[in-house]
Design brief:
Blueprint lengths: L15 E10 L2 E11 L4 E5 L6 H9 L6 E6 L2 E2 L5 H7 L1 E3 L12 H6 L10 H6 L3 H20 L15 H14 L4 E5 L7 H18 L2 E5 L3 H7 L2 E6 L2 E6 L1 H5 L2 H8 L4 H18 L4
Parallel strand pairs: 3-8, 3-9, 6-7, 7-8
Antiparallel strand pairs: 1-2, 1-4, 4-5, 9-10
């Protein structure tokens, strides 16, 4: 596996900057002062226990949520208040934790939708399918079929309806649609969740290749720690909406705070105290105490 060389991506200005981002839903803080950088040409992974705020962070970066405070910068431009379609047009492409494909449409048509933000065809051109509309459609289809479909090895299913595909292939189609957006940063939300070993290895290969061959920066949320540690240049760890560690995979993996977040302290007495505290809180909530 090729890692970023010293003086490479890490030595240049960050492609994406998240600084002091706080996001609250009523009285619940999903994110609390989150900050980190993504270097160009890198693979950065965001990890953390369930409910740590990872998907909320992705939704904030891609424009589905607007933070209560803090900012998001892309290539030095403040995009905190930009709507999601504008961010996609600038170069932020993403997949979703729960597959968000149009199940009644074919693989090819789903992928083509990813280029929508970049098309210049107006309503009249599209209605009569002449001139610019025809030329754009031809160029789009050629690019998708010759590059993306071939790259992700899904030529054999290009005309199949998405609903007929296995879960692993649907995840691959969703990645293809994100690549059709011509992203500078490809955001992947749990790209191998629910996959078997062979599908996971294929997806890991595609992620490495899209960085190496296409020069696309990757930001991903993932629970598969083996894959995260093998692929990532930089890891950010969230717990209860806060960054508790960040750095190279080996350092993060050995961080005591990260170990506690995933496994607890390992202290039996501490565990008993937490259980007693939880039981007391439950009784009080029921109005018994």
């Amino acid at each position: 596996m090729n890692k970023s060389p010293p003086g490479g991506p890490a030595a240049t200005a960050p492609l994406l900057q998240v600084e002091g981002v706080t996001l609250a839903f009523g009285g619940v803080r999903a994110l609390n002062g989150v900050g980190f950088d993504v270097a160009p040409g890198s693979i950065t992974a965001v990890i953390g226990p369930n409910g740590a705020g990872k998907t909320s962070l992705f939704n904030t970066i891609s424009g589905f949520y607007r933070p209560n405070s803090g900012y998001v910068r892309f290539k030095g431009q403040d995009i905190t208040t930009l709507p999601a379609p504008q961010r996609a047009k600038l170069g932020l492409g993403r997949s979703f934790q729960n597959i968000a494909l149009f199940r009644g449409m074919t693989v090819l048509d789903n992928i083509k939708l990813g280029r929508h933000a970049h098309l210049k065809t107006n309503v009249l051109d599209a209605l009569f399918y002449i001139g610019r509309a025809r030329r754009e459609e031809a160029a789009l289809r050629a690019d998708i079929e010759e590059r993306i479909i071939d790259f992700l090895e899904i030529d054999h299913i290009r005309h199949a309806p998405v609903s007929a595909l296995s879960y692993g292939l649907q995840k691959r189609v969703e990645m293809a649609r994100a690549l059709a957006m011509q992203p500078e940063i490809l955001m992947l939300d749990e790209p191998v969740a629910g996959m078997n070993r062979e599908e996971t290895e294929d997806m890991a290969r595609f992620i490495l290749d899209v960085r190496e061959e296409w020069g696309v920066t990757v930001l991903m949320v993932e629970h598969d720690m083996g894959m995260v540690m093998d692929l990532s240049d930089h890891v950010v760890v969230l717990n209860f909406g806060q960054v508790i560690a960040k750095g190279v995979p080996a350092a993060v993996q050995a961080d005591p705070e990260v170990i506690r977040a995933y496994l607890g302290s390992g202290d039996v007495a501490d565990l008993r105290r937490k259980l007693r505290a939880g039981a007391t809180s439950h009784v009080q909530a029921q109005g018994v105490v």
